[in-house]
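Sequence, please.
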């Protein structure tokens, strides 16, 4: 078993990726641009200037900050009513902590929202560290956020698991040298992710079972 375990948040611990997907669908209609899976794949896991760059790559004439704020403000409103958990979101971090494995959340979402959502979901006591995309120079798929998270845990990156659901997040974990585990949510693994990941599973409990049986 590794010494550290780093978790993405949206779509991995919290069943929120589909909320962003649904909200962006409404946003693209409002801004008069097409909503495609390719666009969602490129945008997932990004933050700040990187998100703006993705938006303008697909829609050069759009006000990218306004478009992103329209999407995220709607999701913030939805999450005030309920923060839905994914299966195993509490059990796997607590399993790791029971086995002496240090745990962290590494999310592209702004830190105040990460902390708020973890608190509302009852997960704020499950992690030794929480880092956000605001704390690093480059967002996913660059490895920066996972390297930073590993440092916060006092672990070498290669001695950490990374659990991700997005393609850009998996690429970031692979680039960081972590044992990257894709847990499928809305996105299907690409060929490079299939090759680079230590494992690909349908759920966190399935990944936990593989760890227990020594296959991950």
């Amino acid at each position: 078993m590794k010494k550290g375990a780093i978790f993405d948040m949206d779509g991995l611990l919290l069943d929120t990726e589909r909320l962003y997907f649904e909200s962006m669908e409404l946003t693209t209609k409002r801004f008069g641009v097409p909503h495609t899976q390719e666009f969602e794949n490129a945008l997932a896991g990004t933050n700040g200037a990187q998100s703006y760059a993705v938006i303008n790559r697909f829609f050069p004439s759009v006000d990218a900050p306004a478009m992103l704020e329209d999407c995220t403000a709607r999701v913030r409103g939805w999450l005030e009513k309920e923060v839905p958990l994914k299966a195993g979101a509490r059990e796997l971090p607590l399993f790791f902590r029971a086995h002496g494995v240090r745990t962290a959340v590494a999310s592209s979402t702004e830190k105040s929202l990460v902390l708020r959502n973890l608190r509302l979901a009852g997960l704020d006591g499950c992690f030794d560290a929480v880092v956000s995309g605001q704390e690093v120079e480059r967002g996913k798929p660059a490895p920066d956020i996972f390297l930073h998270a590993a440092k916060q845990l006092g672990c070498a990156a290669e001695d950490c698991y990374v659990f991700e659901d997005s393609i850009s997040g998996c690429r970031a974990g692979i680039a960081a040298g972590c044992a990257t585990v894709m847990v499928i949510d809305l996105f299907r693994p690409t060929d490079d992710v299939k090759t680079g990941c230590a494992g690909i599973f349908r759920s966190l409990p399935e990944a936990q079972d593989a760890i227990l049986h020594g296959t991950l």
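The radius of gyration is 16 Å.
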